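Section 3.1: Structural characterization of target chains.
Under the original work plan, the team committed to producing a structural model for every single-chain target entering the pipeline before any wet-lab resources were allocated. The record below documents one such target. The sequence was received from the expression subgroup and is listed exactly as submitted; it comprises 269 residues.
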Amino acid sequence: MAGGVVAAPVNLALNKLAVASSTEKSTLPAAAAFDGNATTRWSSAFSDPQWIYVDLGANYTVNRVRLTWENAYAKAFKIQASNDAATWVDIYSTVTGSGGIQDLTVTQTTARYIRMYGTVRAFIYGYSLFEMEVYGPAPTPTLASIAVTPTNPTIQVGATQQFTATGTYSDGTAQNLTSQVTWVSTSPAVAAIIANSGLATGVSVGTSAISASLGGIVSTPQTVQVTLTPTLTSIAVTPTDPTLQQIGATRQYTATGIYSDSTTQNLTS
């Protein structure tokens, strides 16, 4: 989205249901690898192969898996994906696992279940993960609302008013959509508006509602009131009945115009 901030990817596996081939003991369960707590961990039995998978709860696009290993890490392992937790497809594989934190770019896939399948342990112990995180592409922000400004303006017949449409997105960012929305006037005979620019023109006396829409999102209408162009009704000159104090002295007169809408204007010059 132009002008927006790219949303941070979300750990799809956080606090989701976890299943493992084994656990070393009850205090090191599979769920500990998906709880977001860097001090808890899952540990398997001391044999090969071993695995742990997470149920994301629905199908998601996945392109990255981040493993935080305890000292007992996998030398050889695969990251696998499945839609039914029965048939698995490899989306990453290595025989040179290094332990520590491994932030892996995996073959992008759409799946519900993601598994770490260990085939060779680095040491005599089992496989142990502090955390296994699963990520997909950053979500594309969606348009949540459109605000139109100015609010309920008044213009004169023949005058123009530029309206602005600002979109607010699901990630909290905002964008000027004035030239992207479709503009509508409920009474074009009163106030006409250019559909792709938001420029309104007063046509006749009255009111009309102006709104903007994009992708099914419609703004709250703003009411534009169109009035006649004020006409000059009288002129007042001041000061009244001045007296010049001496021959050669000067006096400045001021002419003030009074208009049909009760406004005034200095017309002296």
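Residues 69 and 100 are 5 Å apart (CA to CA).
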